[in-house]
């Protein structure tokens, strides 16, 4: 893993897109390329024009490297003091503050300390790293102001599948253990089931296991999302699963590379997630994030007929 340390400008910034999702009003990002190397990640497509890639001499669509700024906590501390209209900050929105390269600089903890030192701020942690547990002592001191979430993209039985497509993230069993530890300590938690990939996490049994697990960890909300088809992610996921001999999952991912099939997968996923949460009497916790632009009309209308828990993200 090549790590590029590049000085950037941002500290705490507004995040209109995540505000529409009702995840947070503000964001902190410790870099522009995460070392977890999840093959479905759409950050490269979203951030491809950022000057940090040119400075690093790297393609935003390549893998095997990360881009971070170890001085980010200094700007976060400055902005945490300076900004008067305070609210909920997501740490992070495009990278992971507990990815291996970020851990090496203790960026997650340092950013948390900088934010929580000022009153009026709350933080939503989102990570695929069980290493976040080492900072639960800090979260405990501000337990009312921090929400802990570990991205759960499949069940333990699909751990080998996930290893093929999320090579540097913590194994799913370790992420679940970290969530259980957060709940044991009395920390606030939420569920993040994103993305729910076809052939891996979109079937009834997997959804039931994941949702029941989130509820057992005291999740205040459960976010869910279909896989984003933007960029080369779906092709890369299909190839990696095929190479790892997970043929049926690879075929399922390959199928949704076509718009009509993606639309049908999405509509079926919405219905399955709603039914599962309804079964557990927790449909009010659902926050299904959905851009309608790639839905075909029949699927769009089907979802609209019962869109409980859907957060429509029209432009």
Description:
By secondary structure, the protein is α/β, with parallel strands linked by helices. It has a domain at 128-133 and 149-315. Helices cover 42% and strands 16% of the residues. It has 14 helices and 12 strands. The strands form 2 sheets. The chain has a 9-stranded mixed beta sheet with strand order 2-3-6-7-8-9-10-11-12. The longest helix is centred in the C-terminal third of the chain and has 21 residues, at 259-279. It is globular. The mean pLDDT is 96.
CA(first)-CA(last) distance: 36 Å
Please, how many helices? Answer: 14
* Radius of gyration using CA atoms only: 19 Å
Strand content: 15-25%
- Give unreliable regions as ranges: none
**Biggest sheet layout:** 9 strands, mixed
Number of strands: 12
* CA-based shape: globular
Decide which structural class fits the backbone: alpha/beta
Please trace the helix and strand order, writing H or E for each element: EEHEEHHEHEHHEHEHHEHEHHHEHE
Kindly report the spatial arrangement of strands forming the biggest sheet. 2-3-6-7-8-9-10-11-12
Helix content: 40-55%
Average of the residue pLDDT scores:
96
Oligomeric form: single chain
């Amino acid at each position: 893993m090549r790590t590029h340390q590049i000085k950037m400008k941002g500290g705490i910034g507004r995040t209109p897109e995540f505000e529409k999702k009702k995840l947070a009003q503000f964001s902190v990002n410790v870099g522009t390329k995460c070392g977890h190397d999840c093959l479905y990640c759409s950050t490269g497509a979203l951030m491809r024009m950022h000057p940090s890639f040119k400075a690093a001499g790297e393609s935003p669509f390549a893998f095997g490297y990360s881009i971070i700024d170890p001085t980010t906590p200094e700007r976060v501390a400055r902005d945490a003091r300076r900004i008067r209209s305070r609210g909920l900050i997501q740490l992070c929105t495009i990278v992971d503050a507990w990815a291996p390269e970020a851990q090496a600089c203790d960026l997650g903890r340092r950013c948390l300390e900088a934010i929580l030192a000022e009153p009026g701020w709350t933080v939503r942690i989102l990570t695929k790293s069980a290493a976040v547990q080492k900072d639960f002592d800090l979260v405990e001191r501000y337990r009312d102001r921090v929400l802990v979430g570990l991205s759960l993209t499949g069940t333990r039985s699909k751990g080998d599948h996930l290893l093929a497509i999320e090579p540097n993230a913590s194994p799913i069993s370790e992420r679940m253990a970290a969530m259980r530890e957060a709940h044991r300590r009395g920390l606030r938690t939420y569920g993040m089931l994103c993305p729910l990939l076809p052939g891996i996490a979109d079937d009834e049994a997997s959804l039931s296991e994941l949702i029941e697990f989130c509820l057992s960890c005291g999740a205040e909300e459960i976010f869910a999302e279909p896989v984003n088809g933007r960029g080369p992610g779906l092709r890369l996921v299909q190839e990696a699963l095929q190479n790892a001999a997970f043929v049926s999952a690879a075929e399922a991912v390959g199928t949704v590379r076509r718009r009509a099939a993606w639309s049908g997968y999405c509509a079926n996923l919405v219905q399955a997630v709603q039914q599962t949460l309804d079964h557990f009497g927790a449909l009010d916790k659902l926050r299904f994030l959905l851009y309608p632009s790639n839905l075909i009309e029949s699927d769009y209308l089907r979802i609209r007929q019962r869109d409980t828990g859907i957060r429509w993200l029209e432009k």
